[in-house]
């Protein structure tokens, strides 16, 4: 039996037709007729702009979590700082740095790509890239972002990475981004961070 390389790969099938069923505030609901070769199928999905998230670790290997109300699930979730890719042409790591500053008032001196995943590939094309951020410092008071809506009252908590892993395995954390990022960070640390690729944000302008 031939051995298979276990790695996801892009393999788009021909789209016979595409229709936007609903234009939303952030994402759309779309339907495609897809040609699978021996048949055609209809697939409805959320057409999402994508997002980035940040595992911010301090000098004591504590991870920063932020609490945010998520109305569809009616829960306050502890999450990683994260945000949509809603600035056209913005570099992924720059978007991550922007979200870290806006949601946590932090700047990072070092960045690595940690993990890249699809949140719900059966019903959405949302893709999230999670970065590891270290060498943290505070955003000056005069430069801090004014948070509104669900973000206005976000609580912040620093949790030792091992305790964050325990929280994931005990079912106390439910955000897929937090779960994926925390477990990926713990796995990378166990390998002395040797598997990670450092990323240097492009200078402004």
Distance between the termini: 53 Å
Report the radius of gyration as a whole number of Å.
19 Å
Arithmetic mean pLDDT: 92
Structural class call reads alpha+beta
Uncertain runs are none
Work out the helix count.
Answer: 3
GO molecular function: hydrolase activity
Keywords: Hydrolase
Domain Nudix hydrolase: 46-186
GO cellular component, one term: cytosol
Structure, described:
The protein has three helices and eleven strands; from the N terminus they run E-E-E-E-E-E-E-H-E-E-E-H-H-E. The protein has 205 residues and is of the alpha+beta class. It has a five-stranded mixed β-sheet, sandwiched between helices. The protein has a three-stranded antiparallel β-sheet with strand order 1-2-3, with no helix packed on it. Strands 6-5-10 form a three-stranded antiparallel β-sheet. Helix 2 crosses helix 3. The longest helix has 15 residues, at 176-190. It is globular and about 55 Å long. The termini are far apart.
Essential attributes:
single chain, 205 residues, alpha+beta, five-stranded mixed sheet, three-stranded antiparallel sheet, 11 strands
Give a quick rundown of the structure.
Residues 46-186 form the Nudix hydrolase domain. The chain is 18% helix and 40% strand. It has helices spanning 92-104, 161-169, 176-190; strands at residues 15-23, 28-35, 40-47, 51-56, 62-70, 75-79, 82-84, 106-118, 127-138, 156-160, 197-199.
């Amino acid at each position: 039996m031939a051995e298979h390389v276990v790695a996801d790969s892009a393999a788009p099938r021909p789209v016979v037709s595409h229709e936007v069923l609903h234009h939303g505030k952030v994402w759309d609901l779309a339907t495609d007729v897809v040609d699978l070769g021996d048949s055609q199928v209809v697939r409805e999905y959320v057409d999402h702009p994508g997002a980035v998230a940040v595992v911010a670790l301090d000098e004591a290997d504590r991870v920063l979590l932020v609490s945010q109300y998520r109305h569809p699930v009616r829960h306050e979730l502890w999450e990683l700082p994260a945000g949509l890719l809603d600035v056209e042409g913005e570099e992924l790591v720059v978007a991550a740095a922007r979200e870290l500053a806006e949601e946590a008032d932090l700047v990072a001196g070092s960045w690595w790509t940690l993990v890249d995943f699809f949140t719900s590939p059966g019903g959405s094309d949302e893709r999230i890239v999670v970065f590891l951020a270290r060498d943290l410092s505070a955003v000056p008071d005069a430069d801090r972002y004014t948070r509104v809506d669900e973000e206005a009252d976000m609580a912040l908590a620093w949790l030792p990475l091992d305790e964050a892993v325990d929280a994931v395995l005990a079912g106390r954390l439910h955000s897929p981004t937090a779960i994926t990022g925390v477990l990926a960070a713990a796995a990378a640390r166990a390998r002395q961070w040797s598997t990670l690729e450092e990323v240097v944000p492009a200078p402004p302008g």
